[in-house]
Amino acid sequence: MSSTGGGPQGPQRMGPPGPGGPPRPGMPGAVAPPPKLPIAGVKYLVAVASGKGGVGKTTVAVNLAIALNRMGARVGLLDADVYGPNVPLMLGTTEEPRATSERTILPVDAYGLKIISMGLLSPGDKPIIWRGPMLHSVMQQFLRSVEWGELDYLVMDLPPGTGDVQLTLIQTVPLSGAVVVTTPSTVALADVRKAIEMFRQVNVEILGVVENMSSFVCPHCNQHVDVFGHGEGKKTADAFGVPLLGEIEIDPRIRIGGDTGKPVASLGENAPEAKSIYAMARAVMARLDVAGASAPSVEIL
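Below the sequence we write its predicted structure tokens.
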């Protein structure tokens, strides 16, 4: 790594983490997984998940993190979506994290958040083509080697589905709970049910469901148009006995905010386009206060 400080003790630029990671349980040479240890200084670990891509999960995660920060909390944002790390784009930053001489990583600051993302370590259009052990190694570095400091919330934007990244996090850290994002469409709901079942099978608290792209208000006639349907997120939440944390409308300003690195939550709670996001963030805070900050240890075989 090339030094960017005044000598060998100065901070250094980070490149993509190297190969490594232990064999998965059940493989030759595998050992029992280590105990799930909390991250020092972090009160709540919140996973934002979805059963499938394209439902606006990262948009929800980014705006949730900013809203929590604007309401006075100390917040970090870990972009665990290694294959599609869009958090830097949505936050409008290309700053590269740096490593200290103590082999720790200094997170990037954006909108008052401490963030880490593969999108900052491997920018551009170069794809990440890694197997499970590499993903495990990267997640361990993001969790254990980043200087998160004292945080009230560490929001983790998970990749879609129920794959290696989710299992690594579940095995190694005590998640406080999961926020599951869906749209009202039948196809999205079929996959979100699988995500809920996955978290339940490994005893991770489901904080609730967020119905994104819930409805659209025509700017010309003020009529509600249910582009992808409406209300199915609540039905799913009710079926699983978990809360509906919020319904976020289809609003071009939310999409533009993400595309331009200016998330609508940064406009504050009184901005019309951010009201549903802040309502969702308050619901997440309330659920965490009730649910607590830990879950039983589970071994994934």
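The chain is about 30% helix and 20% strand.
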